Amino acid sequence: MGKFEEYDFYAKNKQSLISQGVITFTDINGKLMALKPDVTLSIIKHLRDLDNITQKFFYDEKVYRVSKNHNAFKEITQVGIEAAGVVDDYVICEVLELAIKSLNLISNGRNFVLDISNLSVIKNLLPDDFSQSEILNLIAAKNIHGLKKIDGLNQNIIKLVELNSDFDDAIKNLKNIAELENFVRILEILSEYKNNIRVDFSTTNDPNYYNGIIFKGFVDGVPECVLSGGQYDYLIQSMGHKNSKAIGFALYVDLLENIDNPKNDYDADILITYDENTPVNKIRECVKKYRGQNLNIAVQKIIPENLKYKELVRLQNA
Questions:
Q1: Which of 157, 215, 270, 312 is found 20 to 30 A from 94 (Cα to Cα)?
Q2: Does 258 score more than 80 pLDDT?
Q3: pLDDT score, position 86
Q4: Is pLDDT of 257 > 70?
Q5: 3-class SS of residue 148
């Protein structure tokens, strides 16, 4: 996808942007453009309506947002998926399973967990005469004391926030709440992953963007979520796709740099050096031989300073 869109597109959908800061520039024709702060909006913009079809997208893109930690713009690498159109229980389960498998892939043997919640259930239980954002903030902070001070608050909200994170216990308690029947059914389908799923209703997200199931992924060694996603039916419908639903997630690749992966003691398994008289085809044959053994190869005319290698192969005198 392109790196920028017309700024007017983001101005119209400002309430759906995770980061309100947008980098703008003027095109040579005088049109105000913006570096892409969000991939999902662009996918929806170019989406074609196909009746009774689930459209699936994968992306590996750069987005440009204000960093939460440094109060400055940052280039962020995102890998993600989106499913739009027909989004039923199967599609939701497929996306959640992909999220879990993605976390497993990047965790490199470390513990990981996918926190799952349901924003629509929470919103349906909220009182109409109280600030929705204020209650969601209390829920996100697990501020039970603050929630109990709200007159007329549905007690099921407090039960959900206090929920035991053990998967089996959570399922048992959720079955007592009628509004959660479909949510429980999806969790039961994914029970094979229960050791890596945490039902946590303090997991919230922007209600202008998300509805239904939302989730965040965490890996030991990284102090914030490395994966975030959920259903965003309201967003896709507000952009003209009235009969469509959508779900997806993004993996924040840059945060994975914080994972301390085991370091290799060597820069190369095999260092191959050659002289001026060595034919190119002989160098290539030698490289091919070792690459066939799934070894890391370095090829240089001389031995580089500070390069650490297991084995040296010299090609010389033709």
A1: 157
A2: no
A3: 93
A4: yes
A5: helix
For residues 21 and 73, the answer to whether their CB atoms sit within 8 Å is: yes
Length of the chain: 318
Query: Which residue in 113, 82, 92 sits closest to 212, CA to CA?
Result: 92
Sequence ranges of the domains in the chain: 4-258, 268-314
Distance (Å, whole) CA 80 – CA 251: 6
Q: Are 253 and 105 in contact (CB under 8 A)?
A: no
67: how many CB neighbours lie within 10 A of its CB?
Answer: 14
Q: Are strands 211-219 and 227-231 parallel, antiparallel or unpaired?
A: antiparallel
Question: CA 11 to CA 16: how far, in whole Å?
Answer: 10
pTM greater than the 0.85 cutoff: no
CATH code, 4-258: 3.30.930.10
Neighbours of 247 (CB within 10 A): 26
Alpha carbons 253 and 222: distance in angstroms, whole number:
12
Q: Rounded distance, CA 317 to CA 276, Å?
A: 8
Q: Is the dihedral of CA 33, 35, 37, 41 positive or negative?
A: positive
DSSP code at position 109: T
Sheet with 309-315, strands from edge to edge, namely: 297-300, 268-274, 309-315
What mean pLDDT is predicted for residues 277-282? 92
pLDDT above 90: residue 287: yes
Distance CA(213)–CA(95), nearest Å, equals: 11
144-166 tens-digit pLDDT: 888 888 877 888 888 888 887 68
Confidence of residue 76 (pLDDT cuts 50, 70, 90): confident
